[in-house]
Amino acid sequence: MSNQSSVEIQTEWDIVAARQLGRNVAKELGFGTVDQARITTAISELARNIYLYAGQGKIEIQRLTENGINGILIIAADNGPGIPDVRKVMEDGFSTSGGLGAGLPGVKRLMDDFKIETTLGEGTDIRATKWLR
Amino acid sequence: MNKQMARYIQENMTEIISNWQEMMKNEKSERSFEVMPAELMDQTSREFAELMTSNLLESHQAYESRLNDFAEKVVRYGWSITFVTKAINHFGEIVFNGMERDGIITNENLRGFTEEFNKWITPIRDSTIDTYSKTWERTVSLQKIALQELSASLIPVFDKVSVMPLVGTIDTERARLIMENLLEGVVKHRAEVILLDITGVPVVDTMVAHHIIQAADAVRLVGAKCMLVGIRPEIAQTIVTLGINLNEFTTTSTLQRGVEQALAWTNRKIVEVDEE
User: Fold this and answer.
1) Which chain A positions have a beta carbon within 8 Å of B173's beta carbon?
2) What is the pLDDT of residue B29?
3) For helices B13-25 and B38-57, angle between their N-to-C axes, nearest 10 degrees
4) Among B89, B120, B242, B263, which has the highest number of CB atoms less than 10 A from its own CB?
5) Any chain B CB within 8 A of the CB of A36?
6) Which residues of B242-266 are buried (b: 16+ CB within 10 A; e: fewer)?
């Protein structure tokens, strides 16, 4: 069962729109302020990655219910260049853009489940879930 | 034909307007029309009708200025562009149907009148959309400027101590402004301690942190110390989870503590004065 909405990422300001959407959904689902901050930060990282590396893509926010537990699913999808070495980007401190390199591993730690699928030259699809406890 | 149309509209103004209002109310998708007070609606409708006839009767200049006024008003009321184009189309329809009913438009001159109507309606629609988008563009660019003015000011609070309160989203453009204003301000105010207050920053992700770290490094290079204050508990948790290293920073939860710390660094403190 799911209920979805999405934001196209094309400009830097769309990142703000995406995390606003995420924050609203998280609030409605009953997440506390700390989890809301985690979720919005995760969305911010994923949306920024799309903006920086793929140019454009989409952030989708879904409400999930599994075994009576509610959760929020963030899907970050783009048709960008893909990630050559997934293991490397999941290491702390690795960055190709001179950033902190804490983005993707950070998102993984902020959320409960984290899945990444990427094909060189075709794009990247990241799914991250947070369950309401 | 133009004159005929104009005369018809003027003679039947009240009826046309009430028909038109009826039709617009049936546009379910639009709420703005319903919530409008009746008085305001009547006035707006009349203005709209005058605008529609102005194109037929008055000089081009008068029409242009009316159009601008109206489009600006529409933007202020928050009418959507679809609603406005619908309003124009409906107005045309009503006039056309009315003239047909009254026998002004007959089968013989139908073709000519249709053409005239198109010549009448199309430019109004085009220029409304044009004015509409221009007004929006101006609003947006003004807001951008307003936002920029708010974005990063360095406030000297004590001798050698300055505060930069950051409120809202930090994007690349703002990060650049923050850096510029910080460095300029440090030199100008001869600040030794800078307090960066992030109480008003909703999300601190790796990019924001990266910009803050860079700004602090730059401040250090010009001989001042940077302190990060106003870290809310939930932000503290996300920073730790993200694995951002702020160990080189002095950080405090509130601006107040930050100020106390800054004064301590510059060998001062706030004391209560005994009243004698």
Assistant:
1) 12
2) 56
3) 120
4) B242
5) yes
6) bebebeebbbbeebeebbebbbeee
Instruction: Say if residues A130 and A39 touch (Cβ distance below 8 Å).
Output: yes
pLDDT of residue B229: 94
pLDDT at A1 (0 to 100): 42
The CATH fold of domain B155-265: Transcription Regulator spoIIAA (3.30.750)
CATH 1.10.490.10 applies to domain B2-146? yes
* Alpha helices, DSSP H, located in chain A: 12-29, 33-49, 86-89, 103-110
The fold for domain A2-131 equals Heat Shock Protein 90 (3.30.565)
The pLDDT of residue B28 is 58
Looking at the complex, does the CB of residue A97 fall below 8 Å from at least one CB of chain B? no
Q: Six-digit token pair at B213?
A: 């770290």
Please report the pLDDT score of residue B77 as a whole number.
75
User: Which residues are CB-contacts of B169 (< 8 A; sequence separation ≥ 6)?
Assistant: A16, B201, B202, B203
Residue B102's pLDDT is what?
83
Q: Token match 């503590």: residue?
A: B257
pLDDT tens-digit readout, B199-233: 989 889 888 899 999 999 999 999 999 999 999 99
Nearest to B235 among A15, A37, A101 (CB): A37
CB contact under 8 A, B206 and A99: yes
What pLDDT does A73 receive?
A: 95
**Chain B contacts of A48, Cβ < 8 Å?**
205, 207
* Residues with pLDDT less than 70, chain A: 1-4, 97-99
